[in-house]
Design brief:
Blueprint (H helix, E strand, L loop, with lengths): L2 E8 L1 E5 L5 E4 L2 E8 L5 H13 L14 H4 L2 E6 L6 E3 L2 E3 L6 H16 L6 E3 L7 E5 L5 E5 L1
Parallel strand pairs: 4-5, 5-8
Antiparallel strand pairs: 1-4, 1-10, 2-3, 2-9, 6-7
Length: 147
């Protein structure tokens, strides 16, 4: 695993940033992303493409799931270093997580790749900061993927 993604289908979501700015999306997907120390630019780009290609989104009256691109859903990206944690005894350790400076670079590459799909609303959280997320889910439909 170089990149771990947790995708959560939502009806709406908000993310409160440290400076009290609030990011909002409507129906779409919340993407939590974590990079480990083996991650490189290619992994970040591949992970972004996975977000576009995976069929997780539902549309009312439709039997098959579609991609977020197909449904025109919004995407909220949240850096989530805790996805890289490993349990040792009763404690969680993060020794395999990427160094923060390198992680920020890959996070920006990941988000920039998502933003190339200009027809979608993409909101990005702040790398390395504590943030408060609230979401209304229609599942829950949470899916974890390793790239």
């Amino acid at each position: 695993m170089s990149v771990r993604l947790l995708l959560q289908q939502c009806k709406s979501a908000t993310l409160k940033l440290p400076a009290d700015d609030v990011l909002e999306i409507g129906q779409g997907v919340v993407v939590f992303v974590c990079f480990n120390k083996t991650a490189v630019e290619e992994n970040a780009l591949k992970a972004a493409q996975l977000v576009f290609k995976v069929k997780l989104s539902e549309e009312e009256g439709e039997a098959k799931r579609k991609t977020t691109v197909d449904t025109g859903g919004d995407i909220l990206v949240i850096p989530q270093a805790t996805l890289g944690g490993k349990l040792k005894g009763n404690s969680v350790q993060y020794h395999n997580n990427i160094h923060p400076e390198q992680g920020k670079v890959l996070y920006d590459i990941f988000c920039d790749e998502l933003e190339k799909k200009s027809e979608l609303t993409i909101r990005r959280g702040e790398f390395g900061a504590r943030q408060v997320v609230s979401m209304e889910t229609n599942g829950p439909y949470s899916h974890c993927f390793d790239v």
